[in-house]
Structure formats: structure tokens, C-alpha cells
From TrEMBL:
GO terms for biological process: DNA restriction-modification system; methylation; negative regulation of gene expression via chromosomal CpG island methylation. Gene3D superfamilies: DNA Methylase, subunit A, domain 2, Vaccinia Virus protein VP39. Belongs to the class I-like SAM-binding methyltransferase superfamily. C5-methyltransferase family. Keywords: Methyltransferase, Restriction system, S-adenosyl-L-methionine, Transferase. This is DNA (cytosine-5-)-methyltransferase. The active site is at C120. GO terms for molecular function: DNA (cytosine-5-)-methyltransferase activity; DNA binding.
Length: 382
């Protein structure tokens, strides 16, 4: 197992002291819609910090109160709001602003960056019932309407790659509407294991920018074709294997006797894929669930983290050395959250798993938006 970073370098995930993201000059004013626990905002904060810029979260919105509470805990000066965005931003694209939208715009003031990750369940390949034809898919266009309301310099929308196959063509409709507003627009599917995220996660990103901002197509093109050494599981969580006091978010989920037997077999045999005879009877026939009940490897990125990371029956979530599934702490690290990001507001294990599994890895926003923040700083210094 390799668990350390290179000598003299501070490991980006092991830092327990939160940087003062609110200090710096100039300040970047941000709105984060469908914010979840704050993965996109944290990525912007990290990008701003690297440029000695301050973060000013003018507004963050999510419909789930636990998410808003976590967001507020980690960004105490933010204006974090629990609300249905479809009610908060209630006008149709390409129509005059509604009374509530005008009031919201006035209260928030000018902003620089607008980010959001609309709910993606309707696009997910795991959703076999309403996939690509779900009314929630239309929430994607709420981001376009938000751009009409706030008029940001830069817009970033995050979603699953399957959004490209939406039956109502929400991505192309968004691109067309944003171009009418005067934005340069580009979109791409990004492999996050090239962005300091130790998992094989792919996300669809749409970026729109106006004025003297860099070309979104050039920025996304560089990121989408980036090649380099992928971060391994050992890099992300190697140091956590030695934690003896397994309490709180370092405590793994309870395991059934059957699954304990399966994991001990994998360790004893030094195998990573469970053979059919060891699987439940319903999984012993022809199947494509090779990763299910599988063991992770230290030398490779993890599979995509979902809310099921605490169960080996949900995917390849078994620890490389120990007969247990991943802990919430390990899953958060694999998602790219440093130790200073607090999930302490959550007491229920199921809510914690959902929060971490549904989060947007912060390195994504950091990589995409750093060039735009650099230009923003340069323009304000000239």
C-alpha cells in the first residue's frame, strides 16, 4: 500500500484546518443552485484561494434542509436558502422576469459566477423507468433562466453524461438560449480521475461565458483531453486504514454474516472479484454485475461513489485490505472532500451516505473555473 504524498507537499485531502476562503482581493461573487452540500462551491472557493481571491456566496439554494445546513456550516457567511428553485426562479426562459425574480435579483446583486448541478435521477442509467423522459429533467433549464435573472459572467452546469440523450434535448435547448443571451457556450464529458479525484466518475459539463472571458471550448477541450497519472485509492485514503477508533464517520456499516464470509474469502484468496458460487442465488446466473461484491485495489481509482458505498452488495466498495465496506470518511475523500469539510450536521447514516454519494467532487469546479477566475482578477486589476 502507498499512502503518502511526496516529501514536503501537503496532501490536499488530509488538511484539517479550513482555509479562510472569505479573505482575499478581489472577491468573486457566487450563486450556487441545486447546491447540495456544497461541492461546486468548495471547488470555486479552492480556485479563488489559489489566486488570493475571496469567496462571497451571494446565494445558495437547495430543496433539502440537511444539505443547506451542511452548506451553511462550511460556508458560514453564505446566504444559504432552503427552497424549491422552480418556485424561486419561476419564469419561463426567454420571457420577461417575474415579480419574484426581480425581487431576488435585487436582493442578490451583481454576481460573477453561477454554478449548479440540477437533479440527475431522470437521466441516470440506473433509472430504468423514466430515464431521459422525466419532468425533473426540465430543471436543467432553470439554470438558463437563472442566467437570465442574474446575468453572470460565467455559468457552469454539471450533470451525468446521459443528459445528452434526454428526449427533450435539454442541453441543446440550453446552448441555444444561452447563445441568444450573448454567451460563448461549450460542453464536454469530463473524466474526473484526471482531476485529482480517485474514482472513475464521468460528468457532463456545460460552460457559458461572456465578455473578455476565456473561450469555454478551449478550456473544456484541454480538460477533456488531459492525460496524466490518475490518483489511486491509496493516495486518497491510504492513511485512514490505520485508524483504530472506528467511531462517527470512520465507522463502517454493519455487515451480514454472509457478506463477512464473502469479504474474508476475497482477502484469503487474494481475489478482487467474487465468483458466482459465492454470490446470492439471484446473482449466480448470467449477469453483468462483476463489480458487485468486489474488492477495491490500492493502486487504482475507485469505481464511481454512490450513496450505496457502505454496502458491498451495491458495487465494488470493499476495502482493499479489510473485511468491510468503505466508511463515510473514506467515501468523502474519494469524492475529493478534504478533512476540513464538515459533515457533522448529519446524524442519520442513510442521510450521510446520500449526501456524500450525491455530492459533486470539488476538484471538478476548481479545474474548470480557475482560468475564468484568473481572467476576472486580471480584469479588475487593470
Amino acid at each position: 500500500m502507498q499512502s503518502g504524498s511526496q516529501s514536503g507537499e501537503q496532501h490536499p485531502l488530509r488538511c484539517s484546518e479550513r482555509p479562510d476562503f472569505e479573505l482575499g482581493d478581489p472577491a468573486v461573487r457566487l450563486v450556487d443552485l441545486f447546491s447540495g452540500c456544497g461541492g461546486l462551491t468548495l471547488g470555486v472557493a479552492q480556485a479563488a484561494r489559489s489566486l488570493d481571491m475571496a469567496l462571497d456566496v451571494a446565494l445558495s439554494v437547495d430543496i433539502e434542509m440537511p444539505m443547506v445546513e451542511i452548506f451553511q456550516r462550511n460556508f458560514p457567511k453564505a446566504r444559504a436558502k432552503t427552497s424549491d428553485i422552480a418556485e424561486l426562479i419561476d419564469g419561463e426562459v426567454s420571457t420577461p422576469l417575474t415579480k419574484s425574480e426581480k425581487s431576488l435579483k435585487k436582493g442578490v446583486g451583481p454576481i460573477d459566477i453561477l454554478v449548479g448541478g440540477p437533479p440527475c435521477q431522470g437521466h441516470s442509467d440506473l433509472n430504468n423507468h423514466t430515464r431521459r423522459n422525466d419532468p425533473k429533467n426540465e430543471l436543467y433549464l432553470r439554470m438558463v433562466r437563472a442566467a437570465e435573472v442574474f446575468k453572470p459572467k460565467v455559468l457552469m452546469i454539471e450533470n451525468v453524461p446521459a443528459v445528452l440523450h434526454d428526449k427533450t434535448n435539454v442541453v441543446q435547448r440550453a446552448v441555444n438560449a444561452l447563445k441568444i443571451l450573448g454567451y460563448k457556450v461549450a460542453d464536454a464529458v469530463i473524466k474526473l480521475d484526471q482531476l485529482d479525484v480517485a474514482q472513475r466518475r464521468r460528468r457532463h459539463i456545460l460552460v457559458a461565458a461572456k465578455g473578455k472571458m476565456p473561450s469555454p471550448s478551449l478550456i473544456l477541450g484541454e480538460i477533456a483531453t488531459r492525460q496524466g497519472a490518475r490518483k489511486s485509492l491509496s493516495w486518497a485514503i491510504g492513511d485512514l486504514a490505520s485508524i483504530k477508533d472506528q467511531v462517527g464517520w470512520d465507522k463502517p456499516s454493519r455487515v451480514s454474516p454472509e457478506n463477512l464470509e464473502r469479504m474474508e474469502w476475497l482477502i484469503q484468496k487474494n481475489e478482487y472479484d467474487l465468483p458466482n458460487f459465492m454470490r446470492p442465488k439471484c446473482h449466480q446466473q448470467e449477469h453483468s454485475y462483476k463489480s458487485m461484491y468486489g474488492r477495491l485495489k490500492w493502486s487504482e481509482p475507485a469505481q464511481t461513489i454512490t450513496s450505496g458505498f457502505g454496502s458491498i452488495g451495491q458495487g465494488r466498495y470493499m476495502h482493499p485490505d479489510l473485511p468491510r465496506a468503505l466508511t463515510p470518511h473514506e467515501a468523502a475523500r474519494i469524492q475529493g472532500f478534504p478533512d476540513y469539510f464538515s459533515f457533522d450536521e448529519i446524524s442519520r447514516r442513510t442521510v450521510l451516505s446520500t449526501t456524500i454519494g450525491n455530492a459533486v467532487p470539488p476538484p471538478l469546479a476548481r479545474a474548470v473555473l480557475t482560468p475564468f477566475l484568473r481572467q476576472l482578477k486580471a480584469s479588475r486589476s487593470s
